[in-house]
Write a structure and sequence with these properties.
Blueprint lengths: L7 H4 L3 H12 L21 E5 L2 E9 L3 H8 L5 H14 L4 E11 L4 H18 L2 E9 L7 E12 L14 E6 L8 H11 L6 E2 L2 E5 H5 L8 H8 L4 E4 L15 E4 L7 H10 L3 H5 L6 E7 L1 H11 L2 E7 L3 E3 L2 E2 L2
Parallel strand pairs: 3-4, 10-13
Antiparallel strand pairs: 1-2, 2-5, 3-5, 6-11, 6-12, 7-8, 9-11, 10-12, 13-14
Helix pairs in contact: 4-5, 8-11
Length: 333
Amino acid sequence: MSDKHLTYADSGVDIEKEESTIKALTSGMTYRREGLGAPLTDIGHYAGLIEFGEYALAMATDGVGSKVLIANEMKRWNTVGIDCIAMNVNDLLAIGAEPISFVDYLALEEHTDEFARQIGEGLTKGAEISKMTIVGGETATLPEIINGFDLAGTCLGMVKKDEVITGEKVQLGDVLVGIPSSGVHSNGYTLVRNIVKQSGYSYQDKFPYNPETTIGDELLIPTRIYMEVLDVIKECDVHGLAHITGSGLLKLKRVTDLGFDFTDPIEPNDIFKFLQEEGNVDELEMYRTFNMGMGFLIILPEEDAKKAAEMTGGKIVGKIVESGIRVKDLEIV
């Protein structure tokens, strides 16, 4: 266990500085196309929407991040393709869009056929779960830039314009239905790797909470893809959706200016208990960095909440309030 309280910022990722960089990057992006292809949303939601007749086309782009370094340590790369697709698809689902196609970007230090086969295996599995086609991509050999590899992609989806869910309908008294995560997913791995490094454990060591697996294998569990959310949208009056990723519950500010009161949160996976204990990480830091067992959130009227929970294997975790984000007695913001 670390003697000091490890944080995401001290490990190398400062969320506040990251937000400042994003603002600086996007502040000059003022050109807006008109007519077919015109933007329907501003930059900053989970996915961007553009005009396409009766439909809005939705686009998202994301990567696997430093989780790939653990894949390298374990010499097992057949799940990170699932992560790559999941991070994009879940962002599309968070505005109610159905994923339809995907392109990947693989940057390499050097070529190895077995490595490439495993990357392709994961991408194929992710595409099958998401019911979409991988229509192309790019492989770049960059030995002077890349140490190992980087994997990212872009996803295209579609949604009828009158069925887009941006959070505008969220109101006081709405119920929160949380859907469990499969683990750490693909965020916060700079802090994760720092914790493991300082703990004295290796990725090949047995996972203390389950000796039948290793710490590395537990951390490589792929991101859950929440396709069942589309069925909930068809059968329930969904007011808002959230994909819980990097910066944890802080991303909920994207959905509404109202508050979130998590009175009965999902129990965090054992991997989060291990990371918190070994890194001596404060509870607040955990909820501001990781999904803490809840990878997706549905916001809807009370009368639809039980049905949504049953359809997704989730549960009612709280309600919409006037302000703030709280998990029991913990003030997230």
